[in-house]
Amino acid sequence: MAYKTINPYTNELVKEYPTATSAEIEAALEKGDALYHKWRQEPAAGRAAKLHEIAALLRKNAEELAKVLVVDMGKLINEARGEVELCAIIADYFADHGAEMLKPTPLSSQAGAARIEKDATGVLLMVEPWNFPYYQIMRVFAPNYMVGNPMILKHSSNTPSSAVAFEKVVNEAGAPAGSLTNLFLSHDQVTDVIADARVQGVALTGSEQGGSVVAEAAGKYLKKSSMELGGNDAFVILDDADLEQVLEVAKRARTYNAGQVCTSSKRFIVADNLYDEFLKRLGEDFKQLKPGDPLDEKTTLAPLSTASAKKKIQAQVDAAIKAGATLYQGNQPIDLPGQFFEPTILTDITRDNPAYYEEMFGPVAQVYRVSSEAEAIELASDSHYGLGGIVFSGDVKRGEKVASQIETGMVFVNTVLYTLPELPFGGIKRSGYGREMSSLGLNAFVNEKLIVSVAKPDLDNAAGALF
Ligand code: NAP
User: Fold this and answer.
1) Residues 208 and 258 occupy one common structural domain
2) Is residue 462 part of a domain?
3) Hey, which end of the chain has fewer CB within 10 Å, N or C?
4) Per-residue model confidence (pLDDT) at position 1
5) Which SUPFAM superfamilies match (predicted)?
6) By CB neighbour count within 10 A (0-12 exposed, 13-18 middle, 19+ buried), where does 222 fall?
7) Is the pLDDT assigned to residue 460 strictly greater than 90?
C-alpha cells in the first residue's frame, strides 16, 4: 500500500512516500517509551509552554500549512486556513487548562484520605482520516501531550504530506523526540504496533469498516481504544422554524469540506408546512456553488478527496435512484478534470432504500417530509449511526426538548455544529465510542489511579476490606 499525495483538483501525483520499515517502527516505539518514562517524572504544567509554541508556529506558518491541505485532499483554501487556526485554538486550550484538568480528584471515603490521580499510561497510536488532516491529529495530540502519553501517528494513505507537515511543526517547536512520530504504516503494521507491549491505547477516527478492524485488534491485545466513526446526521426543521435562519445554516451544513464531514447534515427532516419552500430554496443555494481551483478564493465547491471517493458516492446515488429515490436536482457531470461531484438532492427515500441507512460522504442531501414532531424525532433516531445533529425551532426550549429525545452523541439547536476544545466530540452506535476533546477526551487514555492513605490501620473499622 502506497502513501501518495495526488492533487484531486489536477489529478497530478505530487509525491509518493515509502512504507515504514521495521527498524523505523522499533525506533519510534523505543523513543516513545523512553519519553513516557521521562515524562512520568515531570509535572504536566511544564509541557504547556511547548504546546503554546506549537500553536504559535501553526499561526506563523498558516498559509503554507493550509496549502499543504489543499494539495493533499482538495479542500478550499479558506476552509484550510480555518482548520489550521482551529488546531492552534485546541493546542492553546489544552496548554491553558490541561494541568488543571489533571489535578487529583479527592474522594470522601471511610477507608481514609482518598484521591484519584490521573497518570499517563504509555505510548498511543492514533489512526487518522484525510478529511481534516491536521485537526484530527490535534484532537488527540494536544490533550495527550499534556497527559504525558507520547504518540505514533498513522495517517490516511492519501494525506501523507499533511502528516509530514504536522510532525514538522511539532519538531520545530522543540517538543521532545518521540512526542509525535509519523509512520507510514500498512494495515498489518497497525496491528503489530497495537500488539506491542509499550503501546497502551489506540485512537481511531475514520470509517465504520476501518474502525471495526482496528477495534478488533485493540480488543485482542486488550488495549484501550476510542473510535470516532461515521455519521448520518439529521437536520430537523420543526414547523415553527425560521426558514431564513435554517437556510443560512443548511447549505453550509451539507457542503462544507465538499460534504466530507462526519457531522455533515446528511438527512434533512422537514415539517410538512416548510417542506416545499425548503426544497426549492436549498436547490437554489446548491446551484450557486462554483466549482474550481480550491486555491482560488472565488471557488465555493471543492473537488472530492480522491477518484475513489467520487466513484463511491456516484455508485451510492445511482443505487438510491434505482431503488426508487427521486432525483430532485444535481448528479450531473462537472466539466473539470478534478474529482468534482455536483451537489445533489434526493427525496422520496424509503426505509428499504440502501441510501436510508448509509453515510454519503459528499455533497448529497437527503430530504424527508414529516407531519409531526414525534415523526421527526423517530426518523432522526432511526439510524445505525448516532454522531451529531441539528434542530431548528422558533422556540429554543422546544428545540432543546426535541434535541434531548434524539438518539445521537451531539445536538445543536438553531445553529451550526461547532467543534471546539471545550466541547466533547463523539457518538454512539456505529459512530463509535469514547469522546475526544474537553476533559472527557483528555481522560480517555489516563490511568485513573486510586490512592488511599491513613496514618495507621484501623482494623476494627474494616467494612469493605478485601482480606
Ligand atoms: P477510513 O478508510 O476508515 O480511514 C481512516 C484511517 O484508518 C486511515 O488512516 C486508514 O488508513 C485507516 N484504516 C482503514 N482501514 C484500516 C485497517 N483495516 N487497518 C488499519 N488501518 C486502517 O476512513 P476515511 O475514509 O479516511 O474517513 C472518512 C470516514 O471517517 C467517514 O466515515 C467519516 O464520517 C469518518 N470521520 C469520523 C469523524 C468523527 O470524529 N467521528 C471525524 C472525521 C471523519 P489507509 O488510508 O491506509 O487505509
Assistant:
1) no
2) no
3) C
4) 61
5) ALDH-like
6) exposed
7) no
